[in-house]
Design a protein that fits this description.
This protein is mainly alpha-helical. The protein has 10 helices and 2 strands; from the N terminus they run H-H-E-H-H-H-E-H-H-H-H-H. The protein has helices at 2-8, 30-37, 50-61, 65-72, 74-77, 123-131, 141-158, 166-183, 192-200, 217-231; strands spanning 48-49, 87-88. It has a two-stranded antiparallel ribbon. The longest helix is centred in the middle third of the chain and has 18 residues, at 141-158. The chain is globular, with a radius of gyration of 17 Å. The protein starts with a helix and ends in a 5-residue tail after the last helix.
């Protein structure tokens, strides 16, 4: 009955934000969820073709196709797995400990899988991230480094099954770089409103205009390298 009721509800047009309806699936990744919430991916979060992921990351977020392919095939690059299937569900991305997927402990905005829901935004973690801004206006790389260190320490202290190996470290620094570069490619200092709307409310920010130049793997890796220097190198 619930499934039937959900199908009967009106669906917003592609590009229009609509919060997930009951039964619709979301992932630990804000970017995937933003695109689903705006209808660029199926709003139910299921059966998303690989090509659609690559195309919409480029079209809506100005993420270079090469970078998206790298994210989808991260396990290949680390010699620990194979490519993602040609069609995925956002539910797949919640899987903890699966070498094919992106979920990991010490996320910036989500619980560890062992400590609670690892797909929904943890509002306390979001507020802690925003509060780390030293000027109360933008998020600098020093602010992100402070949060990255704090999340690692907190998860390691509270999660009895905490694990943070090379893949998790790569994802943790890389996802921060992707967030910052998508929201403010050139300045690398997104405003608190941009972060709150994109990562917290999981929607395109007000008056959204994507970067005029693509966000590439080199962009993200360069930011991640700088962040790693400031936050320190750690693993479990």
């Amino acid at each position: 009955m619930l499934f039937t009721a959900v199908l009967a509800l009106p669906q917003a047009q592609v590009g229009t934000y609509q919060a997930p309806l009951p039964g619709q699936i979301r992932s630990p990744c804000p970017a995937f969820n933003v695109l689903a919430n705006h209808g660029y991916f199926p709003r139910d979060g299921s059966a998303i073709p690989r090509k659609q992921i690559i195309d919409q990351f480029e079209s809506v977020l100005s993420v270079d196709p090469g970078l998206t392919k790298t994210l989808l095939d991260a396990s290949i690059l680390l010699n620990v797995g194979t490519k993602l299937p040609q069609t995925i569900s956002l539910k797949d991305l919640r899987q903890h400990g699966n070498v094919l997927y992106i979920e990991h402990d010490a996320s910036l905005f989500r619980n560890d899988a062992n400590l609670g829901d690892n797909s929904a935004v943890n509002t306390t973690l979001l507020q802690n991230f925003l509060a780390a801004s030293k000027d109360g206006k933008v998020v600098t790389i020093d602010d992100v480094a402070d949060v990255r260190k704090a999340r690692y320490a907190d998860s390691k202290a509270r999660n009895s099954k905490f694990f943070f190996g090379p893949k998790q470290e790569l994802l943790a620094f890389g996802e921060a770089g992707l967030l910052v570069k998508v929201l403010d490619k050139n300045g690398e200092q997104p405003t608190l409103d941009l972060v709150k709307q994109f990562a917290g409310e999981e929607r395109l920010p007000d008056g959204w205009t994507k970067s005029t130049t693509p966000v590439t793997s080199a962009d993200v890796l360069a930011y991640a390298a700088k962040l790693k220097v400031k936050a320190g190198v750690f693993n479990s």
